[in-house]
């Protein structure tokens, strides 16, 4: 009997050990359903797509995907370019005046702020404000009246925008944005809204295929390509794995993202930007006292973003700026060109050819603190 009891105890111990080993093996084979992706999900850092959406649960669809950088609340930006050549053809006189110069300073700075004024699961309303300033300085401004009119002139932009992000269900969403800006060399004492106001907007309808993949199609009305125009856009946001992703709003910008760790992100790609200024001439060009300057440029860039503190991040960007156009129109020819009635170069008062230049920019921006993100993600 003692022998049988001893054998029973041995058999019991063996069976127990086998069950424990099998359980550990089965547990080791379980693959997590959601692999870790850095950092916590947040909306695209852009004017358009700040949805203030956090958390991995896909209860309602939004354009942002897991792996994007933190949403930006307040941004301070400073940008500088290297010297570049400019060739100008003034067509306000006979014969045309041709000149050439070197731009020895082209500085840009802006401050932007975004705030959710309505943040519900089924609708998000975001208000944005911005102030931009740009200046030019020439090697010898006396070579042309156009250079003298632009020398050290403060070209300003004051803008406000309202964006709506509307999830329809777990898959479909749409966003709409309208923006108004006052662009030019105005001062507070001589500001005329009708002379300087520029309006833009967009609408995109999209699908959220997974927490890592969203895309959409729509249209934008704006000055990305110099003059005000309506053109189609394709949004494509996708995180392929814990390290790599793409954020794009084609054709205006395409960016490849590298998630180094939760506090460091790297980006590479291009952006196309358009600027449109109304300026009052210090020195009239013939009978003209006002010019509208249109600028279109493409930037090929590398960018790094790094957390300094819980709610404070630092951005450093560098690359090459290609100047596609930088031309000036009088008010009549600008109006004809806007409605497709212009005659190309014949309507341009000043035709400029600009060389490309390397550039560098630095940013400081505020993001939602982690404590707030964790609270919203619950």
Automatic annotation (TrEMBL):
Q: Which InterPro entries match?
A: DUF6268 (IPR046235)
Ordered alphabetically, the record's keywords are: Signal
Q: Per its UniProt entry, which superkingdom is the organism in?
A: Bacteria
Which one Pfam family would you cite for this protein?
A: DUF6268
Q: In this protein, which residues make up the domain named DUF6268?
A: 154-327
Q: Provide the leader sequence positions.
A: 1-28
Q: What is this protein called?
A: DUF6268 domain-containing protein
| Native source species | Hymenobacter actinosclerus
